[in-house]
Design a protein that fits this description.
Layout (H helix, E strand, L loop, with lengths): L17 H5 L2 H10 L2 E4 L4 E4 L2 H8 L5 E2 L18 H10 L12 H10 L4 H6 L1 H17 L4 E2 H6 L1 H10 L7 H16 L4 H24 L5 H6 L9 H31 L2 H9 L4 H11 L8 E3 L3 E3 L2 E3 L4 E4 L1 H4 L35 H18 L4 E2 L4 E2 L8 E3 L1 E3 L9
The site of protoporphyrin IX containing FE (HEM) has 26 residues, from helix 13 and helix 17.
Length: 418
C-alpha cells in the first residue's frame, strides 16, 4: 500500500496557497506522480488527481456521496467560519432536496423533474437569442468610448442576462441578479464577505418565491413556468423550485464567465491560435472544448465516502471528504498526449471532465457551450485586433478558476453585426 502522503512529496500541498491559485498545474503534475491520493490533515481531505481515479469517484455515487453537508468549515474558503445559529438554520433548510448535493434515489427523482427543461433541443432553440444578446454586448463595447474589460463588459453580463431571460425575469432586475449571484459565490468560494452573502441569499429566495407564485397564476413560456408544470410526483415542491432557481444562478453564471475568460487568456497567450480563430471564427466551438480541458472553470468537486475505499493503492476511510481534481484529471498524461499543449484536434476531447461525469453531469453544459462559443465567435468577427491592455486579476479560489478583470484594447471601427 502506498503512503497516503506519498514518500517523495516533500512539500505540503496547499490547495489555498497563492502559488496554487495562480498556477495549479505544476502541483497537480507532482500530485499525480507522487501522491495521487493525497491526504491533507488540515483541513482533513483526500485529494484525488489522476484521470482514472477522478472518473471513478464521479461515477460511483454509492461509495462517493454528494451529500456533503455537515462539514464544519469550508475547505475552499477556510476563512469562512459559519456561526452556530446559521449552521442550525442551514441544516434545517438542507432537508429540502438540492440536486447538486443529493444522491439516488432523491437525485434521480429531482433530475427527472428538472431534466425536461434542459434538453439539448430546448437549449439549441435559445441559440439565436443568445447570439443576439452577445452581439448587443459587443455593440455596447464598441459604442462606449472608454477602456473595455473582457470580464466586466462581456464574459460576466452574458450568462447573467441569458439566465434571467430563460427564467423570464424582467430585464430591470438584471443588476440585482448579478449582485445576488456574485455575493453567493464570493461568500461561499472566494473568501468574500459574509453579510452580503446572507442578505443576497434571503433576497433571492424571497424574489423567486414571489415569481413562482405569480407564474402559477399566469404562466409564460419561460423555464420557471415549465418547471411548475407536472402532476403529482412529477411536480417540484415550492422550496425545491426556489433552491433549483438559486442553484442555476450559482452554478451557471460565474462558471460560464470564467470559461470565456480562460479561453480568451489561452488565445491571447498564443498569437498563432488568435490568428487562426480570427480567420475562421467557426473554430470557436473547438477552442471552447479545448479550453474546458486545458483550463476549466471548476477545478475540484467534493464527495464524502460511504465506506472505506481503496484508490491508486491508498486506503481512504469511510466518512472522509474527497476532492476529485477535475483540472488535474484534464491534464493527466496517462489520458491526454501532450496534456500541457492547447490543441484543437484532440480525437477524445469530449472525454474531459470539466462538466463532471456520471449522474451529476452538468445539466447546463449545452447552454454554457452555446454562450461561450457565441462570445468567442463574436470577438473573432468583430474585435479581430483585441489584445490585453494590462495583466488580468485572478479570482482567489482554488476551485473556481477564472479572472476578475482582463482589461482589453481593440480598434473601435464599429464593424456592424452580421
Ligand atoms: C462552463 C460552465 C460550467 C461548468 C464548467 C459547469 C460545471 C459543472 C460540474 C463539474 C458539475 C457536476 C457537479 C458534481 O458532480 O458535483 C455541474 C453540475 C451542474 N451544473 Fe454546471 N457548469 C457550467 C455551467 C452551468 C450552467 C450554465 C448551468 C445552468 C444554467 C449549470 C447548472 C448545473 C446544475 C443544475 C448542476 C447539478 C446537476 C446535478 O447535480 O445533477 N451549469 N456543473
Amino acid at each position: 500500500m502506498r503512503s497516503a502522503l506519498g514518500e517523495s512529496m516533500t512539500h505540503r500541498f496547499d490547495l489555498n496557497s497563492p502559488a496554487n491559485i495562480a498556477d495549479p498545474y505544476p502541483s497537480y503534475a507532482r500530485l499525480r506522480a507522487e501522491a495521487p491520493v493525497y491526504h491533507s490533515a488540515e483541513p482533513e481531505l483526500w485529494i484525488v488527481s489522476r484521470y482514472a481515479d477522478v472518473r471513478t469517484v464521479l461515477r460511483d455515487p454509492e461509495r462517493f456521496s454528494s451529500e456533503v453537508g455537515g462539514l464544519e468549515s469550508d475547505p475552499f474558503n477556510p476563512g469562512l467560519d459559519l456561526p452556530k445559529w446559521l449552521t442550525g438554520i442551514l441544516s434545517r433548510i438542507s432537508a429540502v432536496r438540492v440536486l447538486l448535493t443529493s444522491d439516488p434515489p432523491d437525485h434521480t427523482i429531482l433530475r427527472r423533474k428538472v431534466g425536461r427543461a434542459f434538453t439539448p433541443r430546448r437549449m439549441a432553440a435559445w441559440e439565436p437569442r443568445i447570439r443576439a444578446i452577445t452581439a448587443r454586448l459587443v455593440d455596447d463595447m464598441l459604442a462606449v468610448d472608454r477602456s473595455a474589460d473582457l470580464v466586466r463588459d462581456l464574459a460576466s453580463p452574458l450568462p447573467t442576462t441569458v439566465i434571467a431571460e430563460l427564467l423570464g425575469v424582467p430585464t430591470e432586475r438584471n443588476d440585482d441578479f448579478k449582485r445576488w449571484s456574485d455575493d453567493l459565490i464570493n461568500g461561499l468560494l472566494t473568501g468574500g464577505p459574509r453579510i452580503p452573502m446572507f442578505r443576497s441569499a434571503i433576497a433571492i429566495s424571497w424574489f423567486f418565491l414571489r415569481t413562482i407564485r405569480h407564474r402559477r397564476r399566469d404562466p409564460g413560456d419561460d423555464l420557471i413556468s415549465l418547471l411548475i408544470t407536472g402532476d403529482g410526483d412529477e411536480a417540484l415542491t415550492q422550496w425545491e423550485l426556489v433552491t433549483f432557481c438559486i442553484l442555476l444562478l450559482a452554478a451557471g453564471n460565474e462558471t460560464t464567465t470564467n470559461l470565456i475568460a480562460n479561453a480568451m487568456l489561452a488565445v491571447f497567450d498564443r498569437p498563432a491560435l488568435r490568428q487562426q480563430l480570427c480567420a475562421n471564427p467557426e473554430l470557436a466551438a473547438a477552442v471552447i472544448a479545448e479550453a474546458l480541458r486545458f483550463d476549466g472553470p471548476g477545478q475540484g468537486l467534493m464527495r464524502v465516502t460511504r465506506t472505506e475505499v481503496t484508490l491508486s493503492d491508498t486506503v481512504i476511510p469511510a466518512g472522509a471528504y474527497v476532492i476529485p481534481l477535475l483540472g488535474s484529471a484534464n491534464r493527466d498524461p496517462e489520458h491526454w498526449p501532450d496534456p500541457d499543449e492547447f490543441l484543437l484536434n484532440r480525437p477524445n476531447i469530449n472525454e474531459h471532465l470539466a462538466f463532471g461525469s456520471g449522474i451529476h453531469y452538468c445539466i447546463g453544459n449545452a447552454l454554457a457551450r452555446i454562450e461561450a462559443t457565441a462570445a468567442l465567435e463574436e470577438i473573432a468577427r468583430r474585435l479581430p485586433d483585441i489584445a490585453p491592455s494590462a495583466p488580468p486579476t485572478r479570482i482567489a479560489s482554488p476551485v473556481l478558476r477564472g479572472l476578475r478583470t482582463q482589461p482589453i484594447t481593440f480598434t473601435r471601427n464599429k464593424i456592424p453585426a452580421q
